[in-house]
Amino acid sequence: MTRYLIILVLVVLFGYGFIEAWPLLAGPSLVITSPAQNASYPDGIVSIRGNAARAAQLTLNGASVLHDQNGSFSSTLTFPRGGSILTFVATDRFGRTVTATQSIFVK
Question: Domains in the chain, ordered, with CATH?
Answer without folding.
Answer: 27-106 (2.60.40.10)
